[in-house]
Amino acid sequence: MTGSTETMPPLVMYVVHAKGANRISYLSVEKISEAFDKDSTPTVGSLCAIVREGDEELGTGNYLIGLAVTRGVAGIASGTLRATLSPVLRLLAPLELGELREQAVSMSPIPQHFYAHRLDSPTARALLDYLRQTDPTVGPWLDSVFRSPRTFDDEVQQSRIEARDAVLLASQIADVPLPADAFSEPPSASENETLLDTVLNAGYERDMEEELLPLDLQRFDGKLIADQRAASLAVFEDHNGQRKLLVMSVNKKPIEEELGIDLLYWDQVHDAFTFVQYKRLERADSGDENGSYEWVYRRKNEIEKQLNLMPKGREVPKKAADWRAFDTPFWFKFVRGDAGRKLDGKTLKGMYVSADWMRLAMTDSTFKVGPRGGFRVTYKNTKYLLRGVFAQLISRGFIGTASTRSQAFRKAMQNLGADRELIIAIKTEWQEDTEREPAPVSSDAPSPALPF
User: Fold this and answer.
1) DSSP string spanning 124-159?
2) Pick from 182, 155, 156: which is nearest to 168 by CA?
3) Residue 350 pairs with which residues in a beta bridge?
4) Half-sphere exposure of 29 (CA within 13 A, CB side)
5) Structural Rg of the chain based on CA atoms
6) Is the C-alpha dihedral spanning 301, 305, 306, 312 positive or negative?
7) Can you give the pLDDT of all 452 residues of the chain as single tens digits?
8) CA torsion, points 31, 186, 332, 425, in degrees to nearest 10?
9) What b-and-e string marks burial along 218-241, b requiring 16 or more CB atoms within 10 Å of the CB?
10) What's the rounded Cα separation, in Å, for the pair 289 and 310?
11) Fewer CB within 10 Å, N- or C-terminus of the chain?
C-alpha cells in the first residue's frame, strides 16, 4: 500500500538546509544531527525536506535530496538547539527547486544553515503529492513512519521485541549498523485495505504467533541481508561485502527440538556456532514484606528439560584459533515477560547465562530462594553477562563451537536443520569430550618435579 496524504495525520513540515546533506547524498546515512537557532528549529515529530546546494556533479542551483523525521531536540548552547533527524530517506534522484516550482510546488528560497523554514499546509501537501507521483520510494516510506502501527496481543508483541533483540545483537556482533527504519511497523488495518493487504497482514500476524524469534520483521530493503534462504534465516555482511554472521531462528524445527535452542549464530570469521535459548521472566513478590517485586523464572522442570537437550561434552582445542573461554556454546537468555508492551525499538535487557553454570547451580541451593525454598532464577542469584560483553565475546571468538564441532554442525545447516537423524548424530557425538583427559598419576608413582 502506497497510501496517500489523506490517510495520514496532518503533518508539520520544514525545509532544512542541512550541513550533513552531503553525507546523505554520498554515504546514504540514516540519521543526521543538525544545530539550529532556538527560534527556528523543526519540532519533534515534524517532517523535514532536506536541501543542499549544487556541485560539480549535480550542477548549479539548489536541490531537494531527501526527507527525514525530527526525532528529538536538545539544547547545546545559549540560543542553540540540536535536532536529530531520523530516519532519512534519500530520494532516488535529487530535485532542483526551480523544477519543483515549475510543477506548481511553490518552494521558498533555500534557508540559511541553522534555520529551518516551515512550509504552509497547501505547499507541504503539494510537495508530498508530487514526490509520491515521481519517486516510488516516498509513499511506502511515509506510510511506514507516520501511519498508526498494527497492534498485536501481548504474546505476539513479546515475540516481536525478542526478535528485534536477536537482530540487534547480530548487528552488534557483526559490526553492521542497522538502518534507522529497520524495524518499521506493519501498517494498521484500514477501511480501504485491499483483500491482498488483509491476507498479507493476517499472514504476518500468524507468522509472528508461530515463531518465537522470526528474523523477517523487516527485509532491510537489501541493505543488510545478503542471502535470505528462509523467512527465519538471515546473513549479515560487513562493510567490505564479506559474509560475516549468519542468524537463524530454529523455533519449532528439529534443531530446537533436539538441542533445546531458539536461535543460533554462526560467526564465519571464527567458524563458531553459538546457541541461545530465550526464557521469559515473570513479575513476583520479592517476599521482603515491603511490597516490592522482582523478575523471576520459576519453571524448574523446563530448565531441566532444556539442559538435558543441550550436549555437555567438551572440545579440547588443538590449535590456538580453537581456544574458547567457555566449554559450552549453549546459553540461556532471560528476558522480562512484559517487554512486548513497550515495543520501542530499544535493545532488550536481559541475562545471558552459560548452560554449564546453570547445570551446576541446579545441583545446589543457588535457586532455592523463593518462599519456603521455592525455585527462582533472579538477577540477584545468577552469574550472567550483559549484552555488550556477550556480543564482544562472540565477535572475538571467545564463545562458540571450535572447528571440529563446527564442521559437523555445518552438515546440519545444509538443509536448515531439517534432517533430524543427522542432528541426533551430531548431538550424540558432542556429548563426549573430543579428547580424553590424561590418566591420573598413580599414588605409587613418583611425584612430578614442581617448577619452583
Assistant:
1) HHHHHHHHHHH-TTHHHHHHHHHSPBPP--HHHHHH
2) 182
3) 335
4) 14
5) 27
6) positive
7) 344 444 444 678 999 988 888 888 877 777 888 889 888 899 988 999 999 888 777 778 889 989 999 988 887 777 888 898 988 898 988 888 888 888 777 777 788 888 899 998 888 888 999 999 999 889 888 887 877 666 666 776 777 677 777 777 777 777 766 654 455 555 454 544 444 444 434 444 444 333 433 333 333 333 333 333 344 555 666 666 655 666 666 666 677 777 888 778 888 788 888 998 889 898 888 776 676 788 999 999 999 999 999 988 888 888 898 999 999 999 999 988 876 665 444 556 789 999 999 999 999 999 998 888 889 999 999 999 998 899 889 888 999 998 888 888 887 776 666 777 777 887 887 887 766 444 444 444 443 332 22
8) -120
9) bebeeebbeeeeeebbbbbbeeee
10) 38
11) C
Sign of the Cα torsion 49, 144, 151, 159 reads negative
Distance CA 28, CA 137 (A): 14
Any idea where the domains of the chain sit in the sequence? Answer: 13-146, 154-429
Instruction: Give the closest residue to 391 by CA, choosing from 354, 417, 352, 423.
Output: 352
pTM of the model: 0.58
In 3D, which of 36, 25, 136, 43 has the Cα closest to residue 90? 25
Check: CB of residue 15 under 8 Å from CB of residue 68.
no
Grid cell listed for 30: 540514516
Measured CA to CA, the distance from residue 259 to residue 293 in angstroms comes to: 33
The contacts of residue 378 (CB under 8 Å, 6+ apart) are 294, 295, 296, 297, 369
Residue with cell 564463545: 399
- The amino acid sitting at 22 is N
C-alpha cell at 329: 556454546
Number of H helices, E strands in the chain: 12, 14
Question: Which one-letter DSSP state was computed for residue 89?
Answer: E
Please answer whether residues 333 and 452 qualify as being in contact, where contact means their C-beta atoms are separated by less than 8 angstroms. Answer: no
Burial letters for 269-284: b for 16+ Cβ neighbours within 10 Å, e otherwise?
A: ebbbbbbbbbbbbeeb
Q: Which three cell numbers stand for residue 77?
A: 548552547
- In single-letter form, the type of residue at position 44 comes to V
Residues 156, 144: Cα–Cα separation, whole Å: 20
Cis peptide before 10 (omega within 30 of 0): no
